[in-house]
Known about the structure:
It comes from Paractinoplanes rhizophilus. This is Nramp family divalent metal transporter. InterPro entries: NRAMP_fam (IPR001046). Keywords: Membrane, Transmembrane, Transmembrane helix. There is one protein chain. The protein is an all-alpha fold. It has one domain (about 1-220, about 235-435): Amino acid/polyamine transporter I (Up-down Bundle). The protein is about 80% helix and about 0% strand. It has helices at about 1-10, 15-20, 25-40, 45-65, 70-75, 80-95, 95-115, 120-135, 140-165, 170-175, 180-190, 200-220, 235, 240-275, 285-300, 300-335, 350-370, 375-405, 410-435. It is globular. The model is unreliable at about 220-235 (pLDDT under 50).
Amino acid sequence: MFGRLRDAVRLSGPGLVWAAAAIGSGEVVIGTKVGAEHGYSFLWALWLGLLLKWAIHRGVLDLTVRSGRSVVDLWHDLRLGRLISCYWLVFFLLTITGLSGLLGLTAASLHEAFSVIGTSVWAVIVAAAVAAFIYFQRYQGFEKIMLIMCLLLVIGVIGSVILARPAPLDLVRDSSLPTSVSAGLLLLSLMGWGAGSGPDLILPYSTWVLEKGRTDWEEHLPTTAPATSTSTTMLERTRQAPRILRIGRIDLASGYVVTGFVASGFMIAGGALLAPRHLTLTNADVIPTLSTILTGSYGQWAFVIFITGAIAAFLSTFAGVLDGTYVTGHRLVSRLRGVEAEVVADRGRTLPRALSLAVLSLIPLLLLLAVEQPVTLVIISGLVSAVSMPVLGTLVLYSLIRSTAEEHQPSRVYLGAIAVATFLYLVLMVISIVQLW
């Protein structure tokens, strides 16, 4: 029993990396904004969004492990593969708005903690430092830093909820549906990005699973294939080692539980601290408003707890989304250029890679300096992610039915859960388009 638990802890990683990357602007900004404007009304939507995403996300895990390939490679080889790859490339270009918003919120948090340096200067420092870290760091180092960030997030949100002192019965009694266009769009953004992010991190997760497999998982797999077998990679041998897939699912589920816990904490803090004061959050005032209330009510020590969690949330999400966009975008561009999947390296220290990463970090910085509305940029990216969830769900459902070997065919219940999740996201997308029209 203890041996299995030890293996599970040692082999965990991509799911919690995803959680550290997902817990950021959506949870701190959108969750807190929803709590400030609507109290605990939409707390149910956050967990529903997580449940819907988990069903689709687990399908991405299964496809990656069973095939030994990233899902963008699997989909590129379909009949309409080039069109699918073009769609996701455009998607990542549009969600650069979210990267820009994350950069602004990270800089604002650091400025609040260290006001000697201006927000714009902090933005430049963060963009350059994170880009350099991603370029020089391999997956193992990236995972360790993200897990540390995840721990800081949990500590920060526990402190924030304790300080907010919410009434437990109100968390259930105040649940309701949106009654206005603005509330409906905010709800959609919450489910799209404020509840565990969207395709902008679910697609890169597939690559992180592959990178984890080439290191830690491979050396712990039992060799059950015949000596003459050509199955030499971890992910191919996983067909004979289903326990590794189970560990991956536990790891992913743990990431969703952590994400839901932290996201709920920020929404509860917003509802308990801001809603009674009838405060709404606009753009650059998110961090100053919350820190001022906490400091005025409890003292400087409360500010330290809050700002630590906020910086960890924004910084880890910016790093995770930038890394995911960088790795997945490179793979999409390479496949569209005709490079075979086996030839495309996920990471490498080359001049073209350095230039592409520099450009990728420079565009959000310039957009932030031009717009100066990080919360608006985050919400725009959240809407793009929510609208793209039905596309992701449809591709996952089709691939599981079509590509999975008969002996590993998912149960009808699980396939039905993915279908329901995809349908609900499609309904939400239609509603949002009608409301915007």
